[in-house]
Amino acid sequence: MTMLSSIVGQCGQTVGLNLPYPSVCQLCYGDAPCAANGFVCLVCLGRLLPVRPPVCGHCGSPLEGMPPDSLLCAHCSGRLWQFDFALSGWAAAGVLREVIHRYKYEGGMWFENLLAGLFVRRFLGALGMGNWEAIVPVPLHQRRHRERGFNQAEVLARAIGMAEGMRVRRDLVNRVRDTDTQSRLSRQERLENVRHAFAPVPRADVPEQVLLVDDVMTTGATASACSEALRALGVKRIGVLTLARAGLSMEN
Fold first, then answer.
1. What is the Cα–Cα distance from 106 to 13, expressed in whole angstroms?
2. How far is CA 251 from CA 2, 5, 94, 97, 161, in A?
3. pTM
4. Could you tell me which residues come within 8 angstroms of residue 196 by beta carbon, excluding any fewer than 6 positions away?
């Protein structure tokens, strides 16, 4: 069963949801989809762009166009990231970019099931046992959390944590600086913007190997800054999982 058919297979009757929730696809306004699909129709879901191997062994960016023996992309060569590797499920383009934006900034809470489902289906069992001890969502600053009402990284972390039977740790890192939105900044500005944005929270029970979760990775600056705070606690191995990867030259 494909990832897409697996998602669609969850759809059942949505009786009782028609009043408070949409009755048509929230992207093309065509055929009526169901709640498990985030009220996005099969045609629109078919436009999702998966990130396919080969990918950079560090940041997870596709290596298409690079020499066949390449292990790292040009962006990672000579750069010291604070995480060990990163993997992303899909390109943050087209359908997925719109869904994420409307979910985070326009109150499109009906998209939550779809995003969580995609994340679980991409990463469930994909890393093997790995001796991972905990899942850590990239924290939001308190002000942004109050405004939005939720942390999208925590939603994804709890979804994969429940599926894998792993503990989600929100108590290891705090976001201590309310940084500017990364999407408007250049690569260098992103690195400076998140410098010292995260602070470790001293704990007696610090895991040695964690999976750091966020919704979108662009340059890796946020993931690296958060990983630096985890390293300060004594975390030895950090893998980054993101639903989407921005900045990829992938055609829809």
1. 26
2. 21, 22, 9, 13, 32
3. 0.86
4. 176, 177, 225
Question: Are the beta carbons of 195 and 227 closer than 8 angstroms?
Answer: no
Q: What is the dihedral of CA 76, 101, 115, 250, to 10 degrees?
A: -50
3-state secondary structure of 152: helix
Residue 158 has pLDDT above 70, yes or no: yes
Q: Is the Cβ–Cβ distance between 46 and 39 less than 8 Å?
A: no
Residue 18 burial by Cβ neighbours in a 10 Å radius (0-12, 13-18, 19+): exposed
- Cα separation, 35 vs 78, in Å, equals 45
- Mean pLDDT over 161-186 rounds to 81
- CA geometry: angle at 247 spanning 241 and 249, to 5°? 115
Furthest-apart CA atoms within the chain: distance in Å: 55
> Is the pLDDT assigned to residue 15 strictly greater than 90?
no
Give 161: exposed, middle or buried? Use CB within 10 Å, 0-12, 13-18, 19+: buried
Residue type at 243 in one-letter notation: L
What one-character DSSP code corresponds to residue 50? Answer: B
- How many other β-carbons are positioned within 10 Å of the β-carbon of residue 12? 9
- Ordered domains of the chain (ranges, CATH): 1-46 (no CATH), 49-245 (3.40.50)
